[in-house]
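Two proteins were folded this term; both appear here.
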Amino acid sequence: MQSNITVYTTNSCPYCVMLKNFLNEQGLPFKEVNVQQDQEAAQRLIETTGQMGVPQTEVNGQWVIGFDPNTIMSLLKK
C-alpha cells in the first residue's frame, strides 16, 4: 500500500523529532517540510489547517495535529 505522508516541523520541536523517529522505526517513508525555514509552507499550513503548532502530519490527505502515532497508524490502515 502506497502512503503519502508529509510531516511539517521546526528546528526546535521535540515532538517533531519523536514523530520522525516513530515513522522511521515503522519503516514509513515521509517528506519533511520545515516551516521554520520555509515561510511560504508555513503560511499554507496555517491557511489549510488553521493551526500554527507543529508537528502537523498529512496522511493521504487527512490531517493529524501534534504527536499522535495511533491516529497516523489508523489512517494508514484505511
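Next, the second protein.
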Amino acid sequence: MNSSRPTAEQLAAAAGTSIPDLLAPGLDVLFCGINPGLYSGATGYHFARPGNRFWPALHAGGFTPRRFHPSEQAALLGLGIGITNVVNRATARADELTPGELRAGGVRLRTTVTRYRPRWLAVVGITAYRTAFGHPKATFGRQPGGIGATRVWVLPNPSGLNAHWTPVTLGEAFAEFHEAVYSE
C-alpha cells in the first residue's frame, strides 16, 4: 500500500489520465463514479482523495466488514463489488466534463454492464446519471427499468464537495441500497 501523497506535479500530470476499472463477471454491485479526480489519476485508485467519503459510506452501509483504504480496492472483488466510472478521464472537478462526454460514458457503461452482468449498477452522482442516461427527472434510489437484467440505483455523490450529504446521511443512503441488494 502506497501511503505517500501525490505531489502537486504528480496531480497536475494526472489530468486527462485514466484508471483501470475494477471488474469481474457476475458481481453483486458495480459502483460507478462520475470520473476519477486528479488524486485518483495520480494514485491509480478509485475514490482515492482523502476527503472523499465513498470508502466510509461503503463500510457504514454494510458493504465492507471494515473501512478499506483505496489501495485495498482489489479486495472488493471478493465481496462481489466492482468499481467503474461514467467517464474515465481524470479532472480536478466533475463539472469539467461536457454533457457529450457524460452521454458517451453512458453508452460505454451500458456496454460494460451488458458484458459483465452485475446484479446491480449503483451510480454515485445524480446529475451525472441524469445526463449520461437521458433521465433528466431521475431521483435517488431504484430506477425504473434497468440494463438487461441489471437493476440500477442512484446514490449521492460521496465527494467532499457535496456538502448536502453528511457522512451520516451518506451511510444511511448506502445502507438503504445494501438492504435492496441483499434482501432478495
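Residues 8-182 form a domain with the Uracil-DNA Glycosylase, subunit E fold (CATH 3.40.470.10). The longest helix spans residues 99-116. These notes refer to the second protein only.
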